[in-house]
Specification:
It is built from 21 helices and 23 strands. The protein is an alpha+beta fold. The chain starts with a helix and ends with a helix.
Length: 677
């Protein structure tokens, strides 16, 4: 009888406590500050879990060991704001913070089906991935994380996090190495923040849900004690406060499969790393994650054809996903030291490129584009033959002859790169695929991404009043000459701009600290200094550095337009255009006005006829997210689906029109041919 009464008393106590806390929360939620807190503690709506019945890895010229290492090799980054062991100990967030009013335990945050709902690709435990994290997660030891008093093993994204694609068809999931990822990193950050915030809340309040205690026991292990638990709670609070200070301003939502990579890199390098808030730019130019097969052999990379050297491209990417870079030490005491393991970057690039230059071998090596799998509906070869003729007429002038034909090895499609270096004329030993770059006014696609490097500036100068020194940028890079009014151009159309024009249209320019330094040049310069600091610290002789740099100079250009890359494997890279605003090849080959205004992103379901993403009917006004999927509104700047349009009669094109209107038969034929590339 006594036991029953005691049990009843305990139940009554907890019921009363829950009612009191719920009432207090109800009253508190009427304040704006608490409403903001509740919003931060509420995870995003996600698509329903849809586990695949079968997984197929497409053959792309990599063996299993290379693929596995590419998925998990560290780039020295600490992308997530928490230590590795914290991530493993964390539980998934409650759907609402009110769920903490009841006892219970949520599954682990890293549970595969949960992270797949953010678009990540699950992977089994292995030597390279001992804790069965998704593709693209890597551990980097001895990192300084904001808010923590000591170093920790960090969790960083690898190249594979953004450049491993997947699509599904009739219950089978296909993995595309080097393809565009389907992840929504903005939603993932919100979900991670909600999980961490709820964990801290359970440490602060006498809640029935003992979430923090379970977290502490996993993190601390045998070191668990009340004192250690309190210290962990203080560290968790400190990490969350540091994260709140680093939150982003979003003007154009990225959504599944997209990222404003250039602005995020600039914000990380020139604002967050340095504390220069004036260098921050809101997120406003998202792009679809690009596919990266064959890219190692392009003369210029990035959608806007802005970077030439592979190491500058890859080290800049690592800096953008939170590789540590010192920008405060004296210049002669290790300023620009970084956590970037350049040897790892060199291995990644060699694996992507292959060891033999393709023009020498008359074939491409390294990572190859995927072939249309036999398990998808068969290609109509008769129709594809008709499409080959159309491709030659309508596409090859910009996108070059197909890379699986002999035509690509003839003519002048490959060329050596001529460039200046310390006043001397230089030329690369190897020949690279010379891509056509179309001016934005000609191609007519959304201009936001192309404007980032051309129009953004950063302040790296010192401040006399504040007794602050400059960032220390001091490098010589090569670039394309500025476009100046006709009356001040030379006879050949180029201005000297303080340096003699060299063959190939490249000049040398010195980049130094200043209050309004062009973003493209500033980024190229600081990445070169970071790489140079690594070379010096690791005793890499000058003669050996070129191998790490891909045997190419650090050349940059801004505002040239958008490049037309070869279309090998294009069928596996939906959505299309640089900002992911067109869901299928069928829509891309139509007049721009006929393309859908709203595009659903996040569902990997594949349409093998229209070739691209299966789309629901989206009529009328649409929310930003629907059933957990992102709804891209192409009427918004940054998201526009204009340009690259097929309309009107044959003849002179421009202003976004690249070809004549196609009949249904012609469009179907061209799509069938593109499946063969």
């Amino acid at each position: 009888m006594t036991f029953s009464f005691s049990l009843f008393s305990r139940k009554r106590f907890w019921i009363t406590l829950v009612i009191l806390i719920a009432a207090a929360l109800f009253l508190a939620l009427r304040s704006d500050k608490v409403q903001k807190l509740a919003e931060d503690l509420t995870p995003p709506e996600l698509p329903a879990a849809a586990p695949a019945q079968k997984r197929v890895a497409l053959a792309q010229n990599w063996d299993a060991a290379t693929t596995e290492r590419f998925h998990f090799i560290s780039q020295g980054t600490g992308t997530l704001p928490v230590p590795y062991n914290w991530l493993l100990a964390l539980e998934q967030p409650e759907a609402s913070p009110l769920g903490l009013l009841w006892p219970g335990r949520e599954p682990g945050f890293t549970e595969p089906l949960y992270l797949e709902r953010y678009g990540f690709i699950s992977a089994p435990a292995s030597e390279e991935n001992p804790d069965a994290l998704p593709i693209g997660f890597a551990a980097t030891p001895f990192q300084n994380l904001a808010g923590l008093p000591e170093t920790a093993t960090a969790v960083g994204f690898t190249c594979a996090a953004c450049h491993t694609g997947r699509f599904s068809y009739e219950g089978t999931e296909y993995i595309v190495e080097g393809g565009p990822a389907v992840t929504d990193l903005q939603q993932f950050s919100k979900g991670l923040g909600a999980a961490l915030g709820q964990t801290l809340l359970s440490a602060k309040l006498p809640l029935p849900n003992r979430r923090f205690d379970r977290f502490a026991r996993k993190v601390l292990g045998e070191a668990y004690s009340q004192a250690a638990k309190q210290s962990l709670a203080a560290n968790l609070e400190s990490v969350l406060k540091a994260g709140a200070k680093a939150s982003d301003v979003i003007e154009v939502t990225e959504g599944y499969g997209r990222l404003d990579a250039l602005n995020r890199i600039g914000n990380q390098v020139f604002s967050k790393n340095t504390g220069r808030r004036e260098n921050y730019t809101p997120i406003n130019a998202p792009v679809n994650y690009p596919h990266i097969w064959t890219a190692s052999w392009f003369d210029w990379v990035q959608y806007d054809g802005s970077i030439m050297q592979p190491l500058v491209r890859n080290a800049g990417e690592a800096m953008g996903v939170h590789a540590a870079v010192n920008t405060t030490a004296p210049l002669d005491e290790g300023r620009f030291s970084s956590s970037i393991p350049v040897r790892n970057l060199a291995w990644i690039e060699e694996s992507l490129a292959g060891r033999t230059p393709p023009y020498e071998a008359k074939k491409f090596g390294g990572l190859l584009a995927p072939a249309w799998p036999d398990s998808l509906p068969a290609i109509n070869q008769t129709l594809a033959g008709e499409g080959a003729v159309l491709y030659a007429q309508l596409c090859s002038g910009c996108h070059l002859p197909a890379l699986n034909t002999e035509a690509i090895w003839s003519g002048s499609y490959f060329r050596k790169i001529s460039y200046p270096e310390r006043g001397q004329d230089k030329q690369t030993d190897g020949a690279y695929l010379a891509l056509k770059i179309l001016r934005q006014e000609e191609i007519g696609t959304d201009p936001a991404q192309g404007a980032v490097l051309a129009e953004r500036t950063v302040n790296t100068a010192g401040d006399v009043a504040a007794e602050a020194t400059g960032m220390g940028i001091s490098a010589t890079v090569c670039t394309t000459p500025p476009q100046l009014p006709e009356q001040v151009q030379g006879a050949d159309g180029y201005a000297a701009a303080g340096a003699e024009r060299k063959e190939g249209g490249l000049i040398e320019t010195d980049v130094r600290d200043g209050p309004m330094v062009n973003f493209a040049l500033a980024l190229g310069a600081i990445v070169e200094q970071v790489n140079g600091t690594w070379f010096a610290a690791n005793n890499i002789p000058k003669g050996a550095q070129a191998a790490f740099e891909g045997e190419r100079p650090n050349c940059l250009q801004a505002g040239a337009g958008y490049k037309a890359r070869p279309l090998n494997g294009v069928w596996a890279t939906a959505p299309f255009l640089h900002n992911g605003s067109v869901p299928t090849l069928d829509a891309l080959l139509r007049p721009a006005a006929e393309r859908p205004r709203y595009v659903q992103l996040g569902d990997p379901a594949f349409d093998p006829v229209k070739v691209g993403l299966v789309q629901p009917e989206l009529n009328g006004s649409q929310p930003l997210y629907k059933d957990g999927y992102f709804i891209l509104d192409t009427a918004k700047n940054g998201n526009r689906n204009t340009g690259h349009s097929f309309e009107g009669q044959a003849g002179e094109y421009g202003d976004g029109v690249v070809g004549r209107a196609l009949t249904d038969q012609e469009r179907a034929a061209l799509i069938e041919y593109l499946k063969t590339l």
